[in-house]
Amino acid sequence: MMKDNLEDFVREHQRDIRNNPAFRVQVQRMCQLIGVDPLSSRKSYMSELLGVGDFYCELGIQIIDICVATRSINGGLMDLDELLRRLIRRRLKGSEPVVEDDIRRAISQLKPLKGGYKIVCFGKRKMVQSVAREMNSDQAKVMTLAQYTCKFTMEDVRVAFGWDEDRIHSCVDDMLRSGIVWMDEYNEAYPEYWVMAFFSQLNSALTMANAE
Amino acid sequence: MSNTTAVPTPGAFQFPEIYNFPPFFTRQPNESTWQEQRRQWCDLILAYYRHNRLYSLTLAEAITEPPFTNRQIHRSLRVDVLRELVDDLVKQGNASWTGAKNAKDSCLVLWRKPEVWASMIYQWANERGLFNTVLTVFELANGDDTAGQEFHNLDSVTLRRALDVLQSQGKAQLFVGTSDDDMGVKLFA
Lengths: 212, 189
Prior knowledge:
The complex is a heterodimer of chains A (about 210) and B (about 190).
Chain A: H1 2-12, H2 14-19, H3 21-34, H4 45-50, H5 53-74, E1 77-79, H6 80-90, H7 100-110, E2 118-122, E3 125-129, H8 137-145, E4 151-152, H9 154-161, H10 165-177, E5 181-184, E6 192-195, H11 196-211
Antiparallel strand pairs in A: 1-3, 2-3, 4-6, 5-6
Helix pairs in contact in A: 5-7
Chain B: H1 31-51, E1 56-58, H2 59-62, E2 69-70, E3 75-76, H3 79-91, E4 95-98, E5 106-109, H4 114-127, E6 134-136, H5 137-142, H6 156-168, E7 172-175, E8 184-187
Helix pairs in contact in B: 4-6
C-alpha cells in the first residue's frame, strides 16, 4: 500500500526530484525508510520512475573522469568539496544541480569498480579516494595532523606523535611514493611535505571566491 | 590557434592553479609525480612564452623572473631543474640550445616550431605575389608589408631558423649580406 502511494508520489514529482536536490534527498530517505532502494537496480521500476538511474550513472562517469584526470597530481585523493565544485563547474548550464549527497550515492555505486572509489575521512576533511590503496594508520594520523595547514615537516610529526626517525621517514616515503604528498625544499634543513588534495581544495575555493 | 596579432596577447597571463603550490618549484623525488610536474612545467613555459611573445631565455637570468620565480609564494626553480626542462622541450622540438656547445646556458623557446613559421611566411609571400623577388630579412620581419602578420617582429634568430627550413625544402634561397641585417631571401614556388 505504501509502495503504491510512493510510486504515485514519485511519478507526480519526477521533475522536482531531478531538479531539486534537497527534495531528492528527502524522497530517497523516504524510500529507504519504506525499504525500497531506488538505486539497487537500474532496471527497477523505482529508479525508472524517479528517473534518477541515468542521473547517477552520468554523475559516476563524470566523477571517474575528474579523478582519473587528476590522479597523477594528487595520487588519487581529492577533497569532496573540491570534487563537488569541479562537478558543478563542469556540468552544463541547465543540467540538474548536484549536492554532496549525490556524490556519495554515485560513489557507492562505483564501489564494485577496480578503482576502489570510496570516501575517507581525516579529521574534519572528507576525501574521495579513487585508487585501490590501504592507507595505514600512521599515514592517516599524519593526514589528520595536516588537515588545516595542508603541510607538515618531519619535526611536526615527531612533536605530535613522538615517533622515532625511522618510523617517520618510512611514513613520509610511503606518502611520497603514493603521490599524495609533494616535497617543498625551500628550507633544506626542514623540508615541508604538502598534501596536494588539501592544498588543491583550498586553492580552488579561493579561486572561485575571487571569481565571484 | 586563434591569436593572430603579432603583439603580446592582451590581458595578464593566466597561471595554472599548481603555480601557487610551493612544491611545484622543487623537483619531486617521486618519479611519477616528477613526470607530471615536468609536463606541467613544459606546458607552462610554452604558454607563457607564447603569450608574451618571448623567444629565448638565458637560464641564469630567467630563474629570477616569472614564470620560474613566483614572488607571491617566494619560490624559484633551480637552474639545474630548468636545464632538465629545457632538455625536455628540445626533445619535443620546442626548444633549441644556443650559445657555447654543451654549455646549456641559453636557448630558443620554440613555442611555434620553425616549420610552422616557415609555412606562414611562405603562404604570405604566395598571397602577395612575392615569389622570385629578393626581400631583405629585415623587411620580412619589420616591414610595413608584414604588419598584422603573425611573424611581424619575429625574433631574428627564430626567423632565421624558419628561413633555413624553407631553404632546406627548396622553397627559398638565402643571400648573406655584409651583415646580418643585410641578409636577403628569395622565395619561389
